[in-house]
Amino acid sequence: MSIFDVFRKKKTIPAPWSKYYTKEEMNLNIPDISMYKQVKDSASKYPNSKAIEYEGASINYSQLIKKIDKAALSFKTLGVKKGDIVTICLPNVPEALISLYALNKLGAIGNMLHPLSAEEEIVQSLMSTNSKILVYMDMFYDKIENTIHNTNVKKVIVVCATDSLNIVMKIGYKIKTFRKYKKVPQNQTFIRWPKFINLKNKNNEIINSNFGKNTPAVIIHSGGTSGTPKNVILQNRAFILGAMQAKIALKKLVPGDCALAIMPNFHGFGLSVLMHTPLSLGCYTILVPQFDSRKFDILFQKTKPTCVLGVPTLFEALSNNHNVKNLDLSFLKYVVSGGDLLPKALEDKINNYLKDHNCKAKITQGYGLSEALAAVCLAHDDVNKSGSIGIPWPSNHIKIIDPATRKTKPYGQIGEIVIHSKSLMMGYLNNEVETNAAMQVHEDGHVWLHTGDLGYMDEDGFVFYKGRQKRLIITSGYNVFPSHIEEVIENHPAVLQCSVVGIPHPYKQEVPKAFIVLKEGFHGFFIKSEIKEYCKKNLAKYMIPYEFVFRKKLPKTKLGKVDFQKLQSDIGVDDDE
């Protein structure tokens, strides 16, 4: 029995956004199938349609299912069975998806790991999931060479970036990378993908997948609501529901459309919205193994995607690119920003850029987290308010609560964002304490995911994100929201980007510290006093930053978000003065 079915006496959840959906859409019934079955259904409907595009090569649905079925037999030959966890540590290459769906057909679980993880992170992940099989990229062999003996891994399936390319492209790649990477040994532990995919099962039997929506399918890594690394266990139901929700909310998407997968497969939004969802709707996913923001416009011109999602800094980079003259973006139907706050000034800048390049779509914001399979709410089509992260996706629910009392906050008041959805994680692997802290049963009888994020909801059900609860600055007893200070400073004509963190103070407890990136042509030495005066006019006295630090760029995490931990440990030396 699922955690969602345990509590029978449940109160109706207020949903002011329900007017944007039908009654059926607000109460979606998830079919009892697997991710594999959902994609196979697409293959039955569109066998000759493109499913994956990768570096100019393409795989149609019929070919994809055949590759998945062969890989499933090969995994079974290696002893993989229901409930086993196999670690997939690959960039966005076809073999990553083929492996995941093959494991899903067996009822096994894909542990999606960042290929650029540090050696100790790789060991920790392999050990915490008890992975005995690892699917890995040959170019990162040196990390495995140093760590494999410290794990329980018995077999490493080695993938090359050219395994899904034609012979001409393979030759070109090998010439380009000759002697660049260590050669992977050929022994009992390491097996190349071409050999793996053709392993003969003893009986060469056909595998019938009977696994349903409640079977664990994927592990995504997350800092969780407490900030410590965790393994998030997601069931098939989360991915199936995500595809159903996208079909309802993104009404302009039709079979044959495509999503540009610049977000990685080890990221919930990337794997769900940009890869699994297109494959479930008869669309195709464009896999980008190595993304270069400086060539974003070139990538657009080459691939012509229907849908693209990225963090705000990527769209900022796009608007500053001038590689392609007269770039035509009329093919774009959806442009979505997620993962970080989208400042109003940047929103306007991107929308002007899109309009100038023949795009009818406007950039919208989405919100989610790994524990709810990334996509929770989204502003889409005409259901949008500037500055909001949209409304909950169909059958999802959000409320804003007082973290101390769990009482629902009135519309317009900031509190913690909590989520109720059929896509919520099963829990954190082998971590009951953190699972119970994150997923709590409220007085209404429903299970709510406590996100640690702050925001408010208006009377129409639109949600406005205001940052992490841990980023809340308490100075002299006042609650200060960094996002508000950032928004004010970014309205100054000289400012390109701003991030604010709290730093210790002897008697005020904390004070704000602003890190500022200036637009081209401005210098911190000359503009600092003007920005200070601007803050005095537009901010309450206790909100004015105690320090102003100018940077040429802000530090980013692996996923392109602003790295606030690095900012908080900054020594305070202005590098633009």
In short:
The protein is an alpha/beta fold and 577 residues long. Helix 12 links the parallel strand 12 and strand 13 (334-337). It starts with 22 loop residues before the first helix and ends in a 9-residue tail after the last helix.
Report the mean per-residue pLDDT as an integer.
89
Structural class: alpha/beta
Q: What name is given to the CATH topology of the largest domain?
A: Rossmann fold
Q: What proportion of the residues is helical, as a percent range? A: 25-40%
Low-confidence stretches: 1-8, 571-577
Please describe the structure with a list of short key phrases separated by commas or semicolons:
577 residues, Rossmann fold, GMP Synthetase, Chain A, domain 3, 2 domains, 9-stranded mixed beta sheet, globular
What does this structure look like?
It is a single chain. The chain is α/β, with parallel strands linked by helices. It folds into two domains: 35-378, Rossmann fold (3-Layer(aba) Sandwich); 480-568, ANL, C-terminal domain (GMP Synthetase, Chain A, domain 3). Strands 2-1-11-10-12-13-14-15-16 form a nine-stranded mixed β-sheet. Strands 7-6-5-3-4-8-9-19 form an eight-stranded mixed β-sheet, sandwiched between helices. Strands 17, 18, 20, 21 and 22 form a five-stranded antiparallel β-sheet that branches. The model is unreliable at 1-8 and 571-577 (pLDDT under 50).
Write the layout of secondary structure elements.
Elements (H helix, E strand, L loop, with lengths): L22 H4 L8 H11 L4 E5 L2 E4 H17 L7 E5 L4 H13 L2 E4 L6 H10 L4 E5 L3 H7 L7 E5 L7 H10 L13 E3 H4 L19 E7 L7 E6 H14 L8 E4 L6 H13 L3 E4 L8 H8 L3 E4 L1 H9 L13 E4 L6 H13 L6 E5 L9 E2 L12 E2 L4 E5 L13 E6 L6 E2 L3 H7 E3 L5 E11 L5 E6 L4 E3 L2 E3 L1 H9 L4 E11 L3 E10 L5 H15 L8 E4 L13 H5 L9
Helix pairs in contact: 2-3, 3-4, 5-6, 9-10, 12-13
